[in-house]
Design a protein that fits this description.
With about 350 residues, this protein is mainly beta. It has helices spanning about 1-15, 55-60, 145-150, 185-190, 215, and strands at about 25-30, 40-45, 50-55, 65-70, 75, 90-95, 105-110, 115-120, 120-125, 130-135, 145, 165, 175-180, 180-185, 195, 200-205, 220, 220-225, 230-240, 245, 260-265, 270, 280-285, 295-305, 305, 315-325, 335, 340-350. GO terms for molecular function: hydrolase activity.
């Protein structure tokens, strides 16, 4: 009886194996002293970047981020290590999974939007999906678009297949931003999306929301110091021939138009396409009123209209949004509508 019991216990012990080491190698969160930040930390798990909105003092003196990793993972440099920035390249973190079989390298990028003039002279391409995005002179990306979401729809991996890209048809310099409303793909039409408007905005595209809530994936805004007075720039626009509703039915009486606007709002959390026009955080708006066709580059200069009775917090953000179809966030517009924007400026109050 005792021998049988011992055999049974031994059999059970032989069947129980230790769990395999965790194969994940993610940086799940990054904590920085709130006094060193002008906006929230953003982690892009798809492109493995960590975007920091730092104060000038934090940028100059360095920071000591505290990292939360996947269970059992290790990172170099270690969590809490002081890192400094020289203004030309960001730091990197190398994360190794507990199993040792997975290694990820995250690049740290610091946003320093001190000059609110944007000429769209410098662009980079996504290494696998091939869509373009503008970068600043220090190689930091502060602009995004709907291109990362469009990439999930099965579109060809070519720069000219996407709705937002660079163009040499600019007002000043060698390039500008071109936004074109394009036909949806077979996959996107399956979920009721029959067109993609070209879009461009200050902020980030949160790929984790792209399929569940596409409008929430567009995270608008960058930290702003002071208060803005006017929003200026140059644009030209040609509407596509046939405006269609979300069901793809042509609306002969409706003509497409573009949208260009800037929004000032309270806080350090970005707004998105679901609330940028309705949030009680909004302090002021500057919006192009005429989104009709313009064959040649046309200058706009619109004031920020401040809401009455709104308290302005210590931390504010500004979003700039442009779209080749004003109703593109609802997947309505005209295929072929083309908007080119260049030399955008946010002029501060004196």
């Amino acid at each position: 009886m005792i021998a049988g019991l011992c055999f049974a216990i031994g059999l059970q012990q032989g069947c129980i194996k230790d769990a395999p080491p965790n194969p994940e190698a993610d940086i799940e969160s990054v904590q920085v002293e709130s006094s060193q930040l002008t906006g929230n930390v953003f982690i892009d798990q798809i492109n493995r970047t960590i975007t920091l909105n730092l104060t000038a003092e934090a940028f100059q003196q360095g920071i000591s981020p505290v990292l939360k990793l996947s269970e059992g993972a290790s990172v170099k440099p270690e969590s809490g290590t002081a890192i400094r920035f020289d203004g030309t390249a960001g730091a990197t973190y190398t994360v190794t999974s507990a199993s040792g079989k997975n290694i990820k390298v995250y690049t740290v990028k610091v946003v320093n939007v001190g000059n609110w003039g944007f000429d769209f002279e410098n662009w980079q391409s996504h290494p696998t999906d091939a869509y373009e995005f503008p970068i600043e002179s220090d190689n930091v990306q502060i602009w995004s678009s709907g291109n990362p979401g469009v990439a999930l729809s099965g579109i060809p991996a070519r720069r000219d297949a996407y709705p937002t890209r660079s163009t040499t048809d600019g007002y000043l310099g060698s390039s500008a931003a071109e936004l074109i409303t394009i036909k949806g793909t077979t996959l996107s039409e399956f979920v009721g999306i029959r067109l993609f408007a070209g879009s461009l905005f200050l902020g980030d595209f949160n790929a984790s929301q792209a399929l569940l809530n596409p409008l929430a994936a567009t995270e608008f805004g960058q930290p702003y110091i002071g208060l803005p007075d006017r929003f200026t720039g140059y644009y030209k626009y040609t509407a596509g021939a046939d405006y269609q509703n979300r069901e793809g039915v042509v609306q002969p009486a409706v003509k497409d138009k573009c949208a260009i606007y800037a929004v000032l709002f309270n806080g350090t959390e970005r707004l998105n396409a679901t609330n940028v026009m309705t949030s009680d955080k909004v302090i002021a708006r500057a919006e192009l009123s005429d989104g009709s066709d313009k064959a040649n580059f046309t200058r706009f200069d619109v004031p920020f209209v401040y809401k009455q009775g709104v308290n302005i917090s210590d931390h504010v953000m500004v979003a700039i949004v442009a779209s080749s179809s004003a109703d593109g966030n609802e997947y309505r517009g005209a295929i072929g509508s083309r908007l080119v924007v260049d030399s955008l400026r946010v002029i501060p109050k004196l």
